UniProtKB/TrEMBL annotation:
InterPro entries: MFS (IPR011701), MFS_dom (IPR020846), MFS_trans_sf (IPR036259). Keywords: Membrane, Transmembrane, Transmembrane helix. The chain crosses the membrane at residues 6-25, 45-64, 70-88, 111-133, 139-161, 182-201, 221-239, 251-270, 276-300, 312-332, 381-401. It is found in: Membrane. Pfam families: MFS_1. This is Major facilitator superfamily (MFS) profile domain-containing protein.
Length: 430
């Protein structure tokens, strides 16, 4: 299990870098005014891949085994590696090499390794405290309090490192100076929290509340999840037509909020077509929000800073996704832990409670009356968690109202490679 966790972390490390680098390459090659449609095309491919992976994962695991969920990605990854090697060229290095005789060591010195290490440990301690609190340990225990306090200290140390490091900082603090970039990143982090909390809970609702198999739950997600790349295309089209970025962000976060509020109305019974309809707005809003937030932040920076601005957006959004899943998971587990003994009545044992909290397949082993009661309890727990994700979406919408970013327009151009790929300065387009 430890090896599985390590390898998943390595995969996530590479996958996150690929998505960021794809956007950075777009930033270098495509004029700022035209990036909306190119980003939309990228969102289609990323969204389609995410839909296939999330929706078909259950079917693959139930039919040929969970290992094939990983093995089937190997030939695709090899193909991507070959295509990238053949198509992408090495551009001239714009970062000064400190020691030409040892370029690798020189490059490593420019990496913010200390900041990355402190950030990972700080976030890990925070997530550990949120996961253990009320679940394995009381909220007032030394382990939980120590984890949360220690994480705050480490995150403050991270900010100090970013402000003083001689390497290239992970999050350049000067990019966050002023209310506008701060408002954009607050929208970014809360929309990430809402989106991934929602995506975590919907499959759990299908399986724990409605009794669907992993395969059936995955198939029910395919069509609604396709709304995410559709939202990306709409966002790209609106940006290409000159609509202000701030309006795109507000439209996206408002649609996400609507979708999360609709999820609150889903119960243990009801027609299944409503679930299909109710799942569309949150996914559509996510597709609208992500590229609009990205370009809102990038439009506030100079062209030479757009790569690091892009990575900053993805890093902060990733932090939001981690928080969203962890908080809502803690809500569900704490509700189950507190109310399962009462729901099970005389049948309650520590072993049974633990199995019901950790494995949905254990629900099928209960007598019909108890199974119905426990599924209703899962529904109550998820409704509270959906209320939390709705609160995250509301905060994202609230901060989006402070955005004043305009359309994808430029004050001037300065070709860097003989075409229109270089922007000397990108404006807000007021």
């Amino acid at each position: 299990m430890l090896m599985l966790d390590i390898m998943r972390a390595v995969t996530g490390f590479g996958g996150g870098g690929l998505i960021t680098m794809a956007t950075v390459i777009n930033s270098d090659m495509i004029p700022f005014k035209q990036r909306g449609m190119y980003q939309a095309m990228q969102n289609i491919l990323v969204g389609f891949g995410a839909v296939l992976g999330a929706s078909l994962g259950g079917m693959i695991a139930e039919s040929i085994g969970w290992r094939w969920c990983f093995l089937l990605q190997v030939p695709v990854s090899v193909l991507a590696l070959v295509v990238g090697y053949l198509v992408l060229e090495n551009p001239p290095c714009i970062v000064p090499v400190l020691d030409p005789k040892h370029p690798f060591l020189s490059a490593m010195q420019r990496l913010d390794l200390s900041g990355a290490t402190v950030l990972v440990i700080g976030l890990g301690a925070q997530l550990l405290g949120l996961s253990l609190g009320g679940n394995d340990y009381p909220w007032g225990s030394a382990v939980v309090i120590g984890s949360l306090v220690g994480s705050v200290v480490l995150l403050l140390v991270f900010v100090k490192i970013e402000a003083t490091t001689k390497a290239i900082p992970m999050i350049p603090l000067h990019l966050l100076h002023g209310w506008q970039p701060t408002a954009v990143q607050l929208t970014n982090v809360f929309s990430g929290m809402a989106a991934y909390a929602y995506m975590f809970m919907v499959p759990l609702y299908f399986q724990a509340v409605r009794g669907d198999s992993p395969t059936a739950a995955g198939l029910r997600l395919i069509m609604p999840a396709l709304a995410t790349p559709v939202g990306g295309v709409i966002a790209g089209s609106l940006m290409h037509r000159g609509y202000p970025l701030c309006l795109n962000v507000r439209l996206g976060t408002a649609t996400m909020l609507l979708g999360n509020l609709l999820a609150l109305t889903m119960g243990t019974t009801g027609t299944r077509w409503k679930e299909f309809v109710y799942l569309v707005p949150a996914n559509l809003g996510l597709g609208l929000t992500n590229p609009s937030v990205l370009f809102s932040f990038v439009s506030l920076t100079e062209h030479q800073e757009q790569a690091v601005a892009t990575s900053t957006v993805y890093l902060i959004r990733s932090m939001g996704t981690i928080y969203g899943v962890t908080v809502t998971s803690a809500i569900v587990q704490n509700v189950l832990l507190a109310r399962l003994p009462e729901t099970l009545g005389e049948a309650a044992t520590e072993e049974l409670i633990e199995r019901l909290r950790k494995s949905l397949f254990s629900l099928n082993e209960l007598p019909p009356v108890l199974e119905t009661a426990v599924r209703a309890l899962y529904c109550d727990a998820l409704r509270i968690a959906f209320a939390a994700s709705s609160a995250f979406a509301f905060l994202a919408f609230l901060f989006s109202l402070a955005h004043k970013t305009g359309s994808l327009q430029r004050k001037c151009e300065q070709p860097s490679t003989g075409d229109e790929g270089g922007d000397a300065k990108d404006s807000l387009g007021h």
